[in-house]
Specification:
Layout: H1 7-10, H2 24-29, E1 36-39, E2 45-47, H3 55-63, E3 67-70, E4 77-80, E5 85-88
Antiparallel strand pairs: 1-2, 1-3, 3-4, 4-5
The structure holds zinc ion (ZN) (3 copies).
One zinc ion (ZN) binds next to helix 2 and strand 2.
Length: 89
Amino acid sequence: MNAGTCPHIDAVREVKLPEVLECAECIKIGARWVHLRTCQTCRATLCCDSSPNQHASKHAHASGHPVIASAQLGERWLYCYPDDAFVQY
Ligand SMILES: [Zn+2]
Ligand SMILES: [Zn+2]
Ligand SMILES: [Zn+2]
């Protein structure tokens, strides 16, 4: 990964991509999402902050898992919540 980001992003050696392109929490409650993000600790795929339920942010704060990757086709970036660090790969 690029230098100068944060220890959490530096620790990502291989970017985890989604198993299924759907928000695991929105599916349960019948909600809609805008974009998807994949947790780099546990590979949970959840919805972005533009989505009504913001499940990826809630997951990061509840679990302490710091880094997500975009799960959108054509987007290649990582984001760290505690450090507010963003990097393209
Ligand atoms: Zn970090
Ligand atoms: Zn969701
Ligand atoms: Zn996670």
